Amino acid sequence: MSDWKDAFLRTRVIPPHSQTARQAPGSPQALQLVFRQIDGLHVKQSESPASLQYQLRVTLFDSGHQHFFGRTWKSDSHSVSGMQGQSGRVFFNEVVYFHTSLCLSSVVAVVELVSLSTRADGSQDAVGSGFGLLQLFTGRADTIISQGEGRLSLFNGTPRALLHPTLKDPLRMNAALSVMEGTQLLYSIQPHPALTPIMHLLPPNILVSGHDSIPGVMSSTDTGTADALRKPRLLKSFLCVLDGLRVALFPSVEVFESNLLQLLNRDCQNTNRGVEGRSVIVQERRLQVGVHNGWGWVEKPHVLVLEREAEGSGAARARGASASGSFRQTSTDKLSDGLSLRGSVELKMMRDVAFSIVFQLQYVFSCPLAGDGQMTSTAVPRAAFMQCVRWCAWSLFSDPEGPGENVSLHLQGGALPNPWGAMVYSASTQQTDSGKCVIKFKFSSSVEGASCSTALNVSHRETSAPKKLLSASQEERILEPTASTLQSPRGPALFLSQLVATSRYPTMSHTVGSPWQQQLPSLLSPSPMASAHQLSHVERPVAGSIVHLELSVQEREGNRSEEEDELQELTFTPVHAPVITLGTHASGSSRSTSRRSLAQLFSSGFPQILDNQNQVAEVLDPSEPVNFNPQREEADPLQANTLILQFLAFTRVPQAGVNSDWPSTVHFTFQLYRFPPVTTERLKLLDPERNSKLKSSSDYPCVLSVINKDGTFSSGCPGLQLHYRVDPQFLKPGERGWFLRYLALHSLQIDVWDSESLMLIGSAAVELKHMLRQGRAAVQVNHELEVITTEYLQDANFASRHDNKHSATPAINVYTTVKGILHLRLGNVGGSATNSQSSLALPPLLSHVVQPSDAPQGFAGGGVPALTVLQLNASNARRARRLPEIDSELARLLQSTMREVGGAALHQQAEAKEVRQRKIDRMAAVRQHEEQKATPPFQDSSNVTRHRAERVQHSRDLRVIEAYRERCKAQEITNMLSQAITTKHTLYATLGTAEFFEFVLKNPFNVPQTVTIECDDPELSVIVKTEEWRYFKELTKTLTPLEEEMFLLKESTLTPQVYLRPKESVHVPFKYQTFICGHTFPLQDTKGLKTSRSPQMAQKHLSNTINAKSIKVLFRGEDKKPLAICQVDVEPTPHVVDQTFRFYQPELTFLKKAIRLPAAWDDTADGSATLHVRCSDPNVICHTTNLTPGEPQDVYLKVPGSPSPQIRKFFITIFTDPWLASPAQIWQVYVHYLQRMDLSCVCGTLSWHSLVLHGTQAIRRVKCYTSHPLELQVDPGEVFALPAQGVQDVCVGLRALRPGSRFFYLNVVDVDTRQLIASWLLCITCRQPVISKAFEISVPVDGGKGSNKKISFTNPYSSSRAFNLRTDRPDLLQFKEEQFQVRGPKANSCSINRSQTLSGGLAV
């Protein structure tokens, strides 16, 4: 009670003016005020700067009604820096938070500067040094908050001057108040939507700091930050129930109400409000019950109606007997009537000592309005009024032992402060402790399996390490029903590439002027999620958890005691449960490789990373943070960067269902920056030498070696090394900053594949921030990355308990598992650039404005040789060419020999070669003519016939050419003339990014023109909305004129039109944006992998890009003739992929999936931003819903099916800005379609099933691979020939070792081309076997010795039989002989060995 009372008395506030409260818009606004420093403070000669202390005090003020309200906030005391007689400076750096619904321009914040000095007696003296008025709201609907930074001038005097009548007019304030010359307060104000979730705990108009303790909000010591309100977090809440609530009034209800009515009637008679006699009567008795945290009501109090119990009734007797026998505190033991409540009250509490339950007893009275006494009481109109008679507050945590089950509280009255701020009735006689009014009830909480006294213990906030409300086991089991593993929705669409970049990473945009406009942390610390293994535990619920209520039943049974009778929570799996996007995992690993293994690994002779001076690159520690300075990177003389990726080794992790030597060959797929996606060569895992001591351990790194085309291993250096050259010739203008930002904030996702089975082993992610050189010549860093994947298993115990309950949903436990460790080395070698000017950013004024040139461009006259045409920088200069060279159809129509002559001249570029060839042809023709003259006509008749035929063909060709020229003349002349008014502009377009530019359109005529803008490409459009135009101009920093309502849209075609005055020029805004990308169905093959041992240089070719094209925009006048032409050449650019998802789905079925964005997306927006999504595949339905701030955002997908084994690939672009300028993230989604088959078996029993394999168009040599070869056998198991267009039966032998539902995969691979022929998704349902015997073995935990036991077994058959032994936990249980022969009927014993290393709580 004392904690609540102290908080209540300390946080009392002055309410705002009633008229101002009625004028409030309604919706509250949360604000953040930052007071940085005061400059120009004058320090007197008599004052010592060292002894001066200053303090800021802020109070809300209503200038319209000259009314201070709220509570004054006081900052800490700060000293002044400066010399005597000079201007000083005081650094405050204080942050103030508050929320208010009084968003009016008359509401301001009064900031007072107070100087503090110490008196002789040790007390502190505060003297006002000046004040200022901070404007909080503008009053405009579009921008309510006056956000931004500013300087506030201070006035001399005290804020009390604002109450003077002459200062009621704001215009006379400057005349009446004097300004402190040179003294200004540097401040900033901005909205703070993060305060919205705690508005119910913090009353409005109260200014608080981040270190203030607000009941119900985690303090700064709990959150780990100095400012607890920057991102406030709520405490855990629980439900409590008040049952059997009863109020006992002293000495009885009848006497209490009689005295009360007598006083009220006397008061009514004195004020002439009532009639003579007992006119005031009791109409209703109410009880208000609510939760109060000392600052305000947590929720609106409950209003309950009490019923009066007659004295001596059966109910009163029963209640009185129960009260006298059960309650610890009673007012009297005799039976008396009281006020009781039917039913119970449910309240939500938080684990804070300041939280209390407050009760208020209210009486509703009615009195007649007439006072002449001539009418009866029933006919007189009556007025009702309410009066508070008693109240009390009860803290659950006041008793160190916790609250009891039965509670009795004393009600109090009188003129004491209360949460309602109302006057409370007080009896005229002094009451003793034994004669006070009492409220009694039975208290219980929603905590299961624990009593109230043990469950509701909480320590005070003053302690350094506050205890939790519940114990650790109770809190995990009751208040936090979260699975201990990563949860995911059940169903066949099951696989997900886990390691992806988080939403805090931006996407490269060519529209934004500078990549550094967005906030960038200077200290890049390691990722908070240390590894993928840690992701499977609920340490970071925001980063990796699926919204399921699935609980591990086995863990609950193992942790609860035998006496507990705990209700089990049933599994609830929502339809299309959302997949939460996971965060980036750090490069470190929770598994550490031993020094012996590292020595063995790095002695294998991997190539070193050297700089330009052949010096070894500096080695960085991946666990240390990176100090990133963008200016240092920009000033680096080595502008070229060579990114090096070295895949060194792969460490196998023992897995259930596979052999110890799996995998034997691997390859990797990834995409770095906007380089094309890479599928590496096949790499062999080389085991250490047989005589090595490492062979005894299964956790050793296997060096990777490239496999040649003939199947042999490469003789060069081990590992695989890839080079990526990033220089100014590769980067587009202004892109260098985006590339550096990509390295600083992004992670590289690497998918690891089994090269034999073409199955995905898992995914790993590595942060690229250590590749920033920061002025160094070269850097390198070694990483050990966990390769993780998701696996699915049904809870067998859950399924067995609900076998007869068809309504129960099977529980699918989805968890992450580590498949291996990838040893990767990253490096960056700096180099000099030959052309560094190409990477400089273009001026914003010129980069987005297309200005047609007025100067004539072309050829002045004379000969036009071929080389001169190539050198001319003119678009309207054309060199004459032969017609067969222009039109291929015309060349096919020509029949004379000139076709060959023209064809031979196609490859001649220089004029000298053409002249020489022409002279040779003329000489040959002269010689042929002379020979014909020397020969008699009758001796060469064949030549005459041949020449006559050639002349006929030549004449025909000339007529064809003449007809062609007449047909194309008008079109060619028009095209040539249009080049004079054509302006070319090149765009480097990226998927989803809007490219903005303005075209300067001029009216060349002396009369006005209405110009129609025509464009046949829907991806290039005119920006007709003024708000959108203004947004892009601010985004690109384009300082050109902007006009309101500039365009007119035709009603039929919606074609924009613009009106131009004579000789007038206007800027026409354009936006090019495409969401369509090439969609193919790639197969998983490694046929085209490179096998060269030289360093592979990444080439600048296009992949994952949009299509290149040329778009013409025609500006037609009123006569339908073009005034200008803008030709936009779109150059495609690969985009950066932020996240990759992989789903496995049965063929020809729809995939329905919801991807949930993490909570970090709420921090990037101001709470009012709307999420937009677009998909690159028009056949995929992708959308999202607009929710209130704070609600989780889901992206819904519906993907059509395809036949197996095709893979559908598409991209999803996510936007947070209203005009979809630049995507915040780009997701790459793969949907693998498989043939589905449901199989059922008994645990440990081998069952065979048949699959039908269809052949392709050609005969192939194929082999079948399974994801769990120890549990799933295939016949034929070796390579076999699959006939063309044939059918092959594949037998599958299933022996599952674990009960429940699981998912296996079967791939049929072409061994020659490494292509995937067919793929199956096998949904396994394994039932538990009939247990004939049960044994119990007790061994020490963690490091104890194993145990050897013998089990007797009798052959139940009459003949001799061979028996095999199997176990579902081979890691814990081993057999001396896995197969033995027993003659029948005869007993035999089998020996088992229990593993030495055992974790507590496991059972076999």
UniProtKB/TrEMBL annotation:
<dbReference type="InterPro" id="IPR058765">
    <property type="entry name" value="NPHP4_C2-like"/>
</dbReference>
<feature type="domain" description="NPHP4 Ig-like">
    <location>
        <begin position="1141"/>
        <end position="1232"/>
    </location>
</feature>
<feature type="region of interest" description="Disordered">
    <location>
        <begin position="316"/>
        <end position="336"/>
    </location>
</feature>
<dbReference type="InterPro" id="IPR029775">
    <property type="entry name" value="NPHP4"/>
</dbReference>
<dbReference type="InterPro" id="IPR058686">
    <property type="entry name" value="Ig_NPHP4_3rd"/>
</dbReference>
<dbReference type="Pfam" id="PF26187">
    <property type="entry name" value="Ig_NPHP4_4th"/>
</dbReference>
<feature type="region of interest" description="Disordered">
    <location>
        <begin position="927"/>
        <end position="948"/>
    </location>
</feature>
<dbReference type="GO" id="GO:0097730">
    <property type="term" value="C:non-motile cilium"/>
</dbReference>
<protein>
    <submittedName>
        <fullName>Nephrocystin 4</fullName>
    </submittedName>
</protein>
<dbReference type="Pfam" id="PF26189">
    <property type="entry name" value="Ig_NPHP4_2nd"/>
</dbReference>
<dbReference type="Pfam" id="PF26015">
    <property type="entry name" value="Ig_NPH4_3rd"/>
</dbReference>
<dbReference type="GO" id="GO:1904491">
    <property type="term" value="P:protein localization to ciliary transition zone"/>
</dbReference>
<dbReference type="GO" id="GO:0035869">
    <property type="term" value="C:ciliary transition zone"/>
</dbReference>
<dbReference type="Pfam" id="PF26190">
    <property type="entry name" value="Ig_NPHP4_1st"/>
</dbReference>
<feature type="domain" description="NPHP4 SK-like">
    <location>
        <begin position="911"/>
        <end position="980"/>
    </location>
</feature>
<feature type="compositionally biased region" description="Low complexity">
    <location>
        <begin position="316"/>
        <end position="326"/>
    </location>
</feature>
<feature type="domain" description="NPHP4 C2-like">
    <location>
        <begin position="597"/>
        <end position="830"/>
    </location>
</feature>
<dbReference type="Pfam" id="PF26173">
    <property type="entry name" value="NPHP4_SK"/>
</dbReference>
<dbReference type="GO" id="GO:0097546">
    <property type="term" value="C:ciliary base"/>
</dbReference>
<dbReference type="Pfam" id="PF26186">
    <property type="entry name" value="NPHP4_C2_3rd"/>
</dbReference>
<dbReference type="InterPro" id="IPR058688">
    <property type="entry name" value="Ig_NPHP4_2nd"/>
</dbReference>
<dbReference type="InterPro" id="IPR058685">
    <property type="entry name" value="Ig_NPHP4_4th"/>
</dbReference>
<dbReference type="GO" id="GO:0090090">
    <property type="term" value="P:negative regulation of canonical Wnt signaling pathway"/>
</dbReference>
<dbReference type="InterPro" id="IPR058687">
    <property type="entry name" value="Ig_NPHP4_1st"/>
</dbReference>
<feature type="domain" description="NPHP4 Ig-like">
    <location>
        <begin position="1332"/>
        <end position="1389"/>
    </location>
</feature>
<dbReference type="GO" id="GO:0036064">
    <property type="term" value="C:ciliary basal body"/>
</dbReference>
<dbReference type="InterPro" id="IPR058764">
    <property type="entry name" value="NPHP4_SK"/>
</dbReference>
<feature type="domain" description="NPHP4 Ig-like">
    <location>
        <begin position="983"/>
        <end position="1134"/>
    </location>
</feature>
<feature type="domain" description="NPHP4 Ig-like">
    <location>
        <begin position="1244"/>
        <end position="1327"/>
    </location>
</feature>
